[in-house]
Write a structure and sequence with these properties.
2 copies of one chain form a homodimer. By secondary structure, the first copy, chain A, is mainly α. Chain A has 11 helices and no strands. The structure holds a DNA duplex (18 and 18 nucleotides).
Chain lengths: 203, 203
DNA sequence: GTCTATAGCCAGATAGAC
DNA sequence: GTCTATCTGGCTATAGAC
């Protein structure tokens, strides 16, 4: 419907497709709705992207390409584990507040088709734990942090940062809070999550 | 296909529907596949459950009814916060290892249709944070644990326990591990997650 | 490049025999 | 209760005019 500021048709399609696919998923999305949101005709979708599958893949790859660099930041820079956790948590939650559908979308579609990630792993920017592992083990040796498996620490960081944005309706229902209160909780987490993790591992 | 030990048709349908809906989701599921898995005809599905929507709701409610008591355990018994966290973490991860699709299914379908949870909230067994909040605040006052908002602690407990089972393909790819190694990591988490949380909050 | 019209298929639901 | 056959609608995709 709204053309916002997409210069060309191809871009307005991709933008509309992003909205529809990320909220409805591949199976729930309808080409007609994407066409309507892009303000063009259904036939144009096929003219530019050949098929629903290919349009979906374009959206998915874009979404993943936004997420991956955020992770690489925590995995591959040279700051201390503590600084990494603080920076990552703050940056990442800010990032997701701007793209709230993104993590649930990626997770849902990977669960639907796990082999999809094999293609992504080919890319050289694909996140990798090797450097992070060495650093964790080094800081344990230096008695800077308590013993912990790097994989478990990594899972914990991911979980604490991402989960609330994936399970939003569940959390709002259990905590019995409205949208405004939920958003405030998420803002607070920018610092609270980092403190929580660091409290747990620092000596 | 396999009838396992479903006495009657209705049950074998529900069981087949559970498998298909939980792995494909509402939109991706096909009535034909459910019929095949139940070893009966497509028309029978409608005879017993009238529509795809109603069959789905039966599956969803069953799934949620399995999950809720697990949460109520941590929220409403009288043990200390520390004991609750240890018990919950161990029990919950054991539970999900037996039902690996369950959390992703519930979260995905609630994201697809968030208003669905309003109906669930009517049920008297629906998890509620009030008692847990009071207990957290009391233990903070008694200097047993560090100051933390009960909602944030609750989110953290949920996140650390549930997230890896929701984002399994992502974690396996990032950590570059196979299925066997992943399962071992999850078993280890039965104790590691509780230690991680308690380390963070205890004084 | 953009549109209308329609082909072709597939899935959910129903009718009706047994 | 269980089946086969079929209706009906909706969806992706394409043909073809402009």
């Amino acid at each position: 419907m709204a053309k916002t500021k997409d210069e060309n048709t191809e871009n307005s399609i991709l933008n509309a497709a992003k909205n529809v696919f990320q909220s409805k998923g591949m199976d729930g999305a309808r080409m007609q709705e994407i066409a309507d949101k892009a303000g063009i005709n259904k036939a144009m979708l096929h003219y530019y992207y050949r098929s629903k599958q290919l349009l979906f893949e374009a959206v998915f790859k874009n979404a993943f390409a936004l997420l991956a660099p955020q992770l690489n930041k925590v995995l591959n820079d040279d700051s201390s584990i503590e600084d990494k956790i603080r920076n990552f948590t703050s940056n990442y939650i800010s990032f997701i507040i701007k793209h709230p559908y993104l993590p649930a979308f990626i997770i849902q579609e990977l669960n639907r088709n796990p082999s999809f990630i094999l293609k992504l792993k080919q890319n050289k920017g694909f996140p990798n734990l090797e450097k992070f592992k060495k650093q964790v083990n080094l800081e344990i040796e230096q008695k800077l942090i308590k013993p912990i498996h790097a994989e478990q620490l990594f899972i914990n960081i991911m979980a604490l940062n991402i989960f609330p944005f994936v399970a939003t309706p569940l959390i709002k229902a259990f905590a019995n809070i409205n949208d405004k209160a939920f958003k405030q909780l998420m803002k607070d987490r920018k610092e609270e999550v980092a403190d929580f993790i660091i409290n747990s591992i620092k000596i």
